[in-house]
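Quick one:
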Amino acid sequence: MGELVKILNDDDENVEIHIFSNKILFKFDNILFQSRLLNGTFPDTSRLIPNTFELEIKADLDEFYSVIDRAALLTSEKEKNVIKFETNGNEVIVSSNTPEIGKVEEKLAITKNNDKEIKIAFSSKFMMEALKTINSKDIRILLNSDIKPIILKTDEDENLIQLLLPIKTY
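Output:
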């Protein structure tokens, strides 16, 4: 409807409306405007974001962004800018490896809520885009496993949630 309103002029007095079972057609002047009804149900997005997490990592946002940015230097677009993220005690190791170019390994001090360790891979491009939307000093990285989505949150704004899907590298 928003697009229809944009093309209607103030002087368009008569608009013919034809309603069908799966579409609607608007006729005015020499314009035919049609919209289709999409079949199916909209995905249930409430199940995409888990309520509990096995591991919560806290890190400085600027440092984390810089580590991801440096690790992404040697990734390639055809390889989907894949970087690996691995916890080791109270630090995280972010690495990328492109055989033709080289290998990068960066370490960052973190705080974890337990002693669990995780190895996960994701797109550095998507991670950096998600991090750019966050205005906070610290970032919370919430994880369940290497095949479940990565959730990014801050303590300042509980309404801002970034979801990032992992990439299988094996």
